[in-house]
Design brief:
Helices cover 58% and strands 0% of the residues. With 136 residues, it is mainly α. Pfam families: TatA_B_E (PF02416).
């Protein structure tokens, strides 16, 4: 990562032993390890947050572009002229239904004056015993 070899790490350890002494060296190494771990975790957290933001921005940009494209397509559909003019409607019943049997001339029937059919008289509804009696 930084290009530090084993011999350079050994040299740093010897200098630390001479400067700090054998009593304080284990505590200093533990503290240095904790600080290095905290720095690594914070750098990784910042890196993940930046990647998440970049990914979120990318997704937002994609969604925005797709929305603009869909609006543009809808506008083209609305504004484009109709390709085929409407055809006149022809009566279908006359041409498509052929008579199954040849019509034969029927004998003329005498026309008699017809009377209108008598209208049925509604029968009175049965009387409900819970209601008061009806007037005749």
């Amino acid at each position: 990562m930084f290009g530090i070899s084993f011999s350079e790490l050994l040299l740093v350890g010897l200098v630390a032993l001479l400067v700090l002494g054998p009593e304080r060296l284990p505590g200093a190494a533990r503290t240095a390890g904790l600080w290095i771990g905290r720095l690594k975790r914070s750098f990784n957290a910042i890196k993940q947050e930046v990647e998440r933001e970049i990914g979120a921005d990318e997704i937002r940009r994609q969604l925005h572009n797709e929305h603009i494209l869909s609006l543009e397509q809808e506008a083209r559909k609305i504004l484009s002229p109709v390709q085929e003019p409407a055809k006149p409607v022809e009566p279908v019943a006359e041409h498509s239904i052929a008579p199954a049997v040849e019509p034969t001339p029927a004998a003329p029937t005498p026309t008699a004056p017809t009377e209108p059919a008598p209208t049925p008289v509604a029968s009175p509804a049965p009387h409900d015993p819970t209601l008061p009696p009806r007037a005749p």
